[in-house]
Amino acid sequence: MEWHERWSSTLDAAVTSLPDVEACPPELFRLLAEQRGGVRKCIALVLEAGEPLAVLALRKRFELHESVCDGIVPHAFGVMRPARWDAALALGRLVKVNEWLGATPDVASDPETKARYRVATNVDFDALWKAQHNAESVARARNRCEREGGFALEVDGEGAAEWVVRNWSERWAGDRFGEAQIADDIVEAARYLSARGGYHAFRLLHREQAVAGITMLPYDGVLYFMNSYRDDAFERFGVGTRLFELFFRWAAASSYRMVDMGAGAYKERWAPHDGDAVSFFVAPAHLRLAFRAIEGGRSLARRVRRRDDC
Q: pLDDT category, 307, cuts 50, 70, 90?
């Protein structure tokens, strides 16, 4: 095992000898492994019989380690030989994998399954939204925006992806899950992929002012929902709902075959339940037990605070 704080020619050589990461080109993986935005990262070169078994780049979030691809590039974890998740276990770190879309590896522990919402782009969206009890909301937002006038869909405008991500991160800065801390890495990935036609940003404009936005990452004919933001000053018009309607109608006319909204109960308004995403740990048992104790203490502290607020 070799630990590296920064990328090196040794890691380049190891990556070249290993299979590519699904959905994450080597150059993008290397970019995500770089230090930026104050997020602590480390890179492990795992060897077997003196030969590279895996190159795993991790970032720190509270007590946890995650792949630098987590939440940024779907289907990607690290550069490693097929099915060799034991390389991640060998790190001896508390590694969390969030909403994994592939097969759950044998070394996974404490799996947590969440419903995943996906829809083919060739469906009758009006009929679908009626069945999902969303048709009235869609019509109401459409009518309000049309009465106000001046609203228009923008697709892949200059700087649009970064606008969405920066506003999303400001909205969620300081939340107890710490998701917004990876905003700089998301922007870096968006720039890299956008330059190669591998990232889409959709914004709803009101008289040329952006008031809502979403980003989508295409892979293998599927559009994966990434981030979203809407301006509270325009909430009365239902701009978030209006933007999603316009996006899905755009997707229906596109060459993409499916939209994957991911996990999260509110997403069932837009797509039916279709499979599951699984979150799990790849970590030694003593680290998982210690983490449970820490989380239990936090949960107790939150209950005490709520009681004191009464």
A: very low
- Residue 222 and residue 100: Cα distance in Å, rounded? 16
Strand bridging mode 258-263 / 222-230: parallel
- Phi-psi category of residue 262: left, alpha or beta, with phi > 0 → left and psi -120 to 50 → alpha: left
CB crowding 57-95: b at 16 or more within 10 Å, else e: bbbbbeebbbbbbbbbbbbbbbbbeeebbbbbbbbebbb
Encode pLDDT of 173-186 as tens digits: 887 778 899 999 99
C-alpha–C-alpha distance, residues 52 and 69, integer Å: 20
| pTM given for the model | 0.92
137: tokens are 């909301």
Burial of 3 (0-12, 13-18, 19+ CB in 10 A): exposed
∠ CA 208-214-219, nearest 5°, is 130
Q: What's the CA gap between 181 and 69, in Å, rounded? A: 14
Residue 282, Cβ density class (10 Å: 0-12 exposed, 13-18 middle, ≥19 buried) = buried
Amino acid at 125: F
Place of tokens 């550069």: 79
